[in-house]
Specification:
Elements (H helix, E strand, L loop, with lengths): L3 H11 L11 H18 L25 E2 L8 E6 L2 E4 L2 E4 L6 E5 L7 E6 L4 E5 L11 E6 L3 E9 L4 E8 L5 E3 L7
Antiparallel strand pairs: 1-2, 2-3, 3-4, 5-6, 6-7, 7-8, 9-10, 10-11
């Protein structure tokens, strides 16, 4: 808190020694202002005049043009995902998932983050991964079923898009949803 005598001395020097009408002490002005602000806060008046705290700047993510995309590294930005001959590439990550002729789809299989489902078309086996593998942290595949005549798979939204089932298309007949009982959601 400033010293009133020092403040007065500074004002006189700034004005070139001229006498001015005495102002109320700074403490009294601030005290009155605080009392007024306190009264407004207690009465609920003046709340519309408050400035909300500044929100953090939105994260800028690069545009993703790929049909397959997911936030693989958990940074809040989607990464382009591709799958060729059993190798999945997602952003800077490359991992072996399956083999040549297998197919993948991305979805919210457990109503959580987007992960991979894999179809081994030669056998009709369908697998689900509940996370993304990282260096030193492999993720095991969950066997979710076998569909005779399976030719492709895709995400089938449920619960307003919060969760997905795995829709397996067959060479003949309607698609099959896996799992037959929803995992979560």
């Amino acid at each position: 808190m400033p010293d009133p005598a020092a403040l007065g001395s500074w004002r006189r020097r700034a004005q070139g020694g001229r006498e001015r009408r005495r102002r109320p002490p700074l403490v009294a002005v601030l005290g009155t202002g605080l009392a007024l602000a306190g009264a407004l806060a207690l009465s609920g008046a003046g709340t519309a005049a408050r400035t909300p705290p500044a929100s953090p700047a939105p994260r800028l993510c690069p545009a993703v043009a790929s049909a397959l995309h997911a936030d693989v590294d958990g940074d809040g930005c989607e990464d382009e995902v591709s799958f060729t001959d059993g190798v999945l590439t997602a952003g800077p990550v490359r991992m072996r998932v399956g083999g040549p002729g297998d197919q993948v789809a991305l979805g919210r299989w457990t109503c959580g983050p987007v992960t991979i489902a894999l179809l081994r078309a030669t056998t009709g086996e369908v697998f689900r991964f509940d996370g993304w593998a990282t260096q030193g942290n492999p993720v095991a595949a969950a066997d979710v079923g076998r569909v005779d005549g399976a030719v492709s798979l895709r995400a089938a939204p449920r619960n307003g898009g919060r969760c997905d089932d795995i829709a397996v298309a067959r060479a003949t007949g309607p698609p099959v949803l896996l799992p037959t009982q929803p995992v979560a959601g």
